[in-house]
Amino acid sequence: MNLSIVVPVYNEEKNLPELYERLEDALRPLGHPWDVTFVDDGSRDKSLEVLKALQAANPDKVRVVEFRRNYGQTAAISAGIDHSKGDVVILMDADLQNDPADIPLLLSKLDEGYDVVSGWRKDRQDNKLTRNLPSNLANGLISRSTGVKLHDYGCTLKAYRREILDNVKLYGEMHRFIPVYAYEAGGKITEVVVRHHPRKHGKANYGLERTFKVVLDLITVKFLMAFSKKPIYLFGGVGLGLMLISLGLFIWLAVRRIVAEISVLGSPWFQISIMMFILGFLAILLGLIAELVMRTYYESQDKKTYTVKQVIEPVQAARMRKIA
Question: Pairing mode, if any, of strands 158-161 and 34-40?
Fold first, then answer.
């Protein structure tokens, strides 16, 4: 098992030397080949200089990816995954709140046959009002919306098999949703309780505004999971719903005109019903256009609408292949 540790870095100069020491202490006894990829996300302190010094001192273990500017944690994680080589990728933060000593625990769960092992900061050492409460609410919302039940989507400390990550493209703040993408691709997911330490140096780079971004990204993920391959189900469903409501209003206005002799054209409900019918019709057209875009996306790039974990061939076919 080749291990690749991926660490996004933004203004963590004081934490990096100790982090690397802890990684060595945790990984050396395992006996697996390993390396660590640090991605400097446009740090404004001396983080890059510290990383270069670590790489110079440990050229066989340390890889440094430098961004031209700050692109965000998701971009840094994506770059780290792309540049790492191991068949197991472990993500973690650089602030020493994740404990490298928990990595063997994650690997032991992978050995049980799981594709993704997510850390759960059960005793989280952050501000309960501004960090823990919004995070708990977001975790509950994501779990209910996606059907992937995890207690702590925001914990960066996670272990992935490479073949799962190969099917994931990250944008925005989507890194926390990698387990959802893995589940959609047929991955087997579990979580384990990990330690979480108070921050010793520096300050947190995220505030309450991140919660709103998570909610917006969740809408995107939900759409991609449920409707990306059949968008007509969403747009067509909305369109048919609006048209049925419009039809119901028309019938009500007609009955009211016959029974109470109330003018149809003079009622504001007449204009509302017309607008709802038009919007419903446009929604169905939008769904058809989305269907064409989806088909063009898959067919032009010869992409598949499925992922294959392995192929077990009949013995006869395998022998014929060897002879050929």
Answer: unpaired
